[in-house]
Amino acid sequence: MSPIERIQPRAADLGEGMIVRRALPTRQRRMVGAWCFLDHAGPVDFAPGSGMHVGAHPHTCLQTFTWLIDGEVLHRDSLGHAQWIRPGQVNLMTAGRGIVHTEDSAPDARRLHAAQLWIALPPQLADCPPAFEHYPDLPRWQDAGCTLTLLAGRFGGHASPARIHTPLVGMDLLASRDAQLELPLDPSFEYGLLPLEGGMDIAGQHFATDEFAYLPPGRERIALDLTAGSRILLVGGEPFGEPVIMWWNFVGHDKAAIARAQRDWAGGGDADNARFGPVKGGEDRRLVAPPLPWTA
């Protein structure tokens, strides 16, 4: 049995007191299944009049997957959607060939806690039409003193309604008391577990908040010891096959695709730009892409 790998996420300050810890990608691990990005945002308490305000920015060849734990966030996109997400809900945006969106906390927001993930699209869907879906109701059940919420995929006879395109799973585990939880695993999947609050013990190893545990394929079960109040995010999936290229907010299967997306975004976000159109309410907050790290 391969050992459990410990990964220390790196921290970044997004301003207004907003700290995120990035568990994927890192030098140690680029992906877990099709999950190619995992930021743990907050919990953060905002000063009056401040909050999270992310200007219009593009995505390609991925799905953005937002799991909200505390606070309220307004999603707007270039397809015309305007959707509030609240605790216990998921927003799933499929970029495909290209989409633009903004993210803002509520005007009177004082707190935010969320996990922001990306799912890489397989090559045959890299240029699919963009889409957005909101999931206010997710499968939720009790086991061994824990509340389990299935965010994506299938687990234990439950199925998430989230529309995904590769074999994967995402789950939130919340311990109401000190708990010992045993979970069946798919041996063809690799897994990652990230304590968002509290901590956990796996096979004699302790993982504190924001210490990412990576489990290679081959395991059929995992036993977790959780302290009361701990919240664990579990992600898993079949290894993706070939690594994807990630740069800024773009995902692609080769550098040429990333370079084309960068040129199209730099060309403007007006109504005539069929790939990266404007976001109503975010026209004056358009983020600028940094230069490519390689010669286009």
Walk me through what this model shows.
The structure is a single chain. With 296 residues, the protein is mostly beta strands. The chain has one helix at residues 255-266; strands spanning 5-7, 10-13, 19-24, 35-45, 53-59, 62-70, 73-77, 82-85, 90-94, 99-105, 111-120, 131-135, 140-143, 146-152, 154-155, 158-159, 168-175, 179-184, 190-197, 200-202, 205-207, 212-215, 221-226, 231-237, 245-247, 250-252. The strands form 6 sheets. It has a 7-stranded antiparallel sheet, with no helix packed on it. A 7-stranded antiparallel sheet has the order 2-3-4-11-6-9-12, with no helix packed on it. The protein has a 4-stranded antiparallel sheet with strand order 5-10-7-8, with no helix packed on it. A hairpin with a 2-residue loop joins strand 13 and strand 14. The model has no long low-confidence stretch (mean pLDDT 93).
- Succession of helices and strands: EEEEEEEEEEEEEEEEEEEEEEEEEEH
> What structural class is derived from the secondary structure elements?
mainly beta
Kindly report how far apart the N and C termini lie: 43 Å
Q: Please work out how many helical segments DSSP would assign.
A: 1
Mean pLDDT across every amino acid position: 93
Largest sheet: 7 strands, antiparallel
Strand order of the largest sheet: 1-22-19-24-17-14-13
Q: What share of the residues does DSSP label as strand, in percent?
A: over 45%
User: What does the radius of gyration come to?
Assistant: 19 Å
Q: Let me know the number of strands.
A: 26
User: Which stretches are poorly predicted, pLDDT < 50 over at least 5 residues?
Assistant: none
